[in-house]
Amino acid sequence: MRLPITLAALALLFNAPVGAQITVDPMGPATFCGSPTVNVPFTAPGTYNVGNMFVAELSDATGSFAAPSVIGSLPATTSGSISCTFPAGMGGGFAMRITASDPPEMGTAYPLSIFTVVPPNAGSNGVITVCSNSAPVSLFSALGGIPDAGGAWTNPAGNPAPLSFIPGTSIPGCYTYTVFASLPCANETSTVCVSVNQAPDAGINGSVTICSSDAPFSLLASLGGSPQAGGTWSYSGGPYSGVYNPAVDLPGCYVYTVPGTPPCVNASATVCVTVVAAPNAGIDGMITMCSAGPEVDLFALLGGSAQPGGTWNAPLDATGGFYDPATMSPGIYSYTVDLGSCGTDDALINVIEWALPMLERMDLSQSARMARRSCSSINWAERRNPVDLGMDHLLHPAASTRRAPCPKATTRIR
């Protein structure tokens, strides 16, 4: 036997009160800043079981509950107020409703006259340190959080400031960022405090040309600009004293480094040293030669390691470095090497010249007679007193004996 199904039976079947309808109590218009929490009163005329949960739902901006947002809840079995948190940025078109869980019930939609304004967000305070020679730094990027763009900056003196901190131009200190709000919200501010570390100065690259005989000197003086003291020197990647000694140090480029305080990086500059060998004209020399001898290269007579390219100065005759006894005069010949800033050096060659031995003119007929009378031949070079022979015109024996390096000169009369 079938029993008729009545509304009361359906209500018992689903454990839902018959004719119950949950409504939101009327609320006046209101505008809030941000995301306010508001107690929303509601009326639930039905009977609800223990453990029932009233839930407040919010529609989208068109009033649709296709995907509602839960904004509050209340465990209760009777009417009351639900603490609801509304999102920021609500304008017209939103609605809300109250639902019950036990028994299940969908409340009536209530158009809202609540408006919420999105509050400004200036981010969170920041602190930065920059180098005095760095590029401009964005102050906005130094803020924490997710600040709104479009705010305004003021410098530590309270005057308008650009969006970036410019080292060397901007004032170190705390800069204030302000985001302006719409009522009823208030403006919001945050700060970025900027400190500046002085960049190191290693000076400007330099170069120097020195003489190998120069005294040791400080390379710092060869840098351009105004290099800071207290840096370190290096050469080929190894440490160096910074005092260049031409006697032991190699030519090349030496690096001067001044450490920087972060975020400043180290500064470096180089001094490239060129060494010119000191002038060396060699060691003094001498030569003894015969007046009839061949031409002599005077440079070859210099001792030591004489540098070529110098100039010769003769006592009477110009010379290109060769001595010709047939056309030139003996004496002191000087060789000079002139290297400008490295000075000059001189060496001397003493040329001593011996004449060939010769016999004075004599009366050959008298000599012949003498020869027939006294001997078959006379070696004049071996005579010690030609006057005894009555030869007035005979050269004194000293003039006819051999004088090194000239060969021995003799004559024979038959």
Tally the structural domains. 5
Mean pLDDT value? 84
Question: What low-confidence regions span 5 or more consecutive residues with pLDDT below 50?
Answer: 1-18, 359-402
The value of Rg in angstroms is 59 Å
What is the CATH H-level superfamily of the largest domain? Immunoglobulins
> How many distinct beta strands?
32
CATH class annotation of the largest domain:
Mainly Beta
Largest sheet: 5 strands, antiparallel
Helix content: under 10%
Give me the number of helical elements: 3
Return the CATH architecture of the largest domain.
Sandwich
Shape: rod-shaped
CATH topology name of the largest domain, in short, is Immunoglobulin-like
What is the rounded distance between the termini?
193 Å
Structural class: mainly beta
Strand residue content:
35-45%
Relevant terms:
414 residues, mainly beta, Immunoglobulin-like, 3 helices
